[in-house]
Every structure is written in C-alpha cells, then in structure tokens.
C-alpha cells in the first residue's frame, strides 16, 4: 500500500509494516550502505539482498570505485511500485552497473562463487516468515563464503528497544562465522518501530577492517556534485553510530568487537 502523509510524504507499507517514507528513508538507506562501503578501500563488487525499492543501490552508486552492483529481490511488485511512486528512491535502477535478479536471496547466495564480492548489504524485513532465514547461521555462512578476504557485510539488525533477544542471537551467530570484525551500529528512523534501527557490520578474515573509523570517506563536495547529495550520512555520524546506550552495551558490547 502507498499513501500520502502530511508529515512524511508518500509512505510505502508492506504487510502492515512501514517500509519507507519520502522524508526519512535517507537515514536508513544511507547508513546501511555507507557504513560498510566507507569502511573498506575501493569497493568494486557489491551485492544487495532485498532492497527492492532501489534506495540502497542508489547509495552504492555514490561510490565511483564500484564496477558491479547485483541486487536480488524476491518481490518484483516492490520494484514496480517503487519505480511508479518513489522515483527518487528507485533512481538506483537507472545506473548501468546494476543487475536486478528477481528471486530468493538465500538461493542466489548459494550459487555465488567463493570470494566474489567486496561487500554484501542485506536490506531485509523483520525475521518473520521468509525473511527468518536471513538471520540464521547458514545464511551468514553463505555471505562469508561470497566475500573476499577482508570483505564486509551490513545487515538490518532490528531495534535495541524491542528486539534485544534477537540481536543477541545475531551477534552470537556472527561471532562464530565472521573471523574479522563484528560490530553493532544504529541510526534514527522516526517512522520505524521505536524510532530507530540497528545494523550488524562484520568482516571476513583478511585485511583488518575498523568499522568505527571510515577509510573511504565520501567527500562532501563530490556528494554535492552527484544527482542526489547525501542528506544524512557523514564521517562524524559514521563513528557515532557505534556508540551504544549502556543497557545495550552490557548486553551485546562484550559479544561484538
């Protein structure tokens, strides 16, 4: 469903859950993309699982080093609705580096040759129904296999206010699978439950990745020259995103690193 909100502009709702609004989608799309891609030098090949609205691939396209962007979305209707009602989000599909695959992300990853991608971004819905698999150990193992040494993954990881048990499980699974860095970050999104959303950021064994200090910053001037300047992300907010409230730090801080 798409409707017009007086405060947030057009709103996309799937299965009764707000997916994005015109006003605050930047806080989610920019952070889930630039937190991983600004943490490694010269990312070239990027895979997006989910993200059918096109916002994540729009953000990946900011990185001039990227040569190939694959996106695997299970629901073609999301792609079509976004192109029709949210052209400023779906503009990502216009980039010639993008290849859209309609299908199941879990199955797609299993067919990916080992070490194919520099980064994988998992823009999933909540871990209910089909998306449940995207939060389990076998999926994370497939992601790790698809990444090069020192490659990175960023996955939607729920709210510290509402889903701490789920987050603890995700962190524990990631610590077993990813032998590089494992970190939890978060951002504010006013229209999401509890007004925020978190991200798991992990790297495979290889060249070390320090997620908290971006090594591949998006220059503000370069962003201003692009079709759509950044609205939310910057290097300072990147580092701040890893600062956790005390209650969350006690629960998951010791399990991440």
Q: How would you describe this protein?
A:
- The chain has 257 residues and is an alpha/beta fold.
- Helix content is 32%, strand content 25%.
- The protein is built from ten helices and ten strands.
- It has helices spanning 25-37, 55-60, 76-85, 87-90, 105-110, 137-146, 164-177, 220-225, 235-240, 246-253, and strands at 2-5, 9-14, 17-21, 45-50, 68-73, 98-102, 117-123, 147-156, 182-188, 196-203.
- A seven-stranded mixed beta sheet has the order 6-5-4-7-8-10-9, with helices on both faces. Strands 1-2-3 form a three-stranded antiparallel beta sheet, with helices on one face.
- The N and C termini lie far apart (40 Å).
Question: Which descriptors apply to this entry?
Answer:
10 strands; globular; single chain; 3-stranded antiparallel beta sheet; 257 residues; 25% strand; alpha/beta
């Amino acid at each position: 469903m798409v409707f017009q909100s007086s405060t947030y502009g057009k709103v996309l709702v799937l299965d009764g859950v707000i997916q994005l609004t015109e006003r605050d989608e930047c806080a989610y799309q920019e952070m889930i993309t630039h937190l991983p891609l600004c943490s490694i030098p010269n990312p070239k090949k990027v895979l997006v699982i989910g993200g059918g609205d096109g916002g994540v691939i729009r953000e990946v396209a900011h990185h001039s080093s990227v040569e190939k962007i694959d996106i695997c979305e299970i629901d073609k209707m999301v792609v079509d609705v976004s192109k029709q009602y949210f052209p400023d989000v779906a503009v990502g599909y216009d980039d010639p580096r993008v290849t859209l695959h309609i299908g199941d992300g879990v199955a797609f990853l299993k067919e990916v040759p080992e070490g194919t991608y520099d980064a994988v971004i998992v823009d999933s819905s909540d871990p209910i129904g089909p998306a449940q698999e995207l939060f389990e150990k076998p999926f994370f193992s497939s992601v790790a296999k698809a990444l090069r040494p020192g490659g990175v993954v960023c996955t939607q990881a729920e709210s510290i206010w509402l889903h701490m048990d789920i987050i603890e499980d995700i962190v524990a699974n990631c610590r077993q699978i990813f032998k590089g860095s494992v970190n939890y970050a978060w951002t504010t999104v006013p229209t999401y439950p509890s007004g925020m959303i978190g991200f798991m950021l992990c790297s495979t064994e290889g060249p070390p990745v320090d997620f908290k200090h971006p090594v591949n910053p998006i220059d503000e001037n370069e962003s201003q020259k692009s079709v759509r300047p950044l609205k939310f992300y910057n290097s300072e907010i990147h580092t701040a995103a890893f600062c956790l409230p005390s209650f969350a730090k006690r629960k998951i801080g010791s399990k991440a690193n």
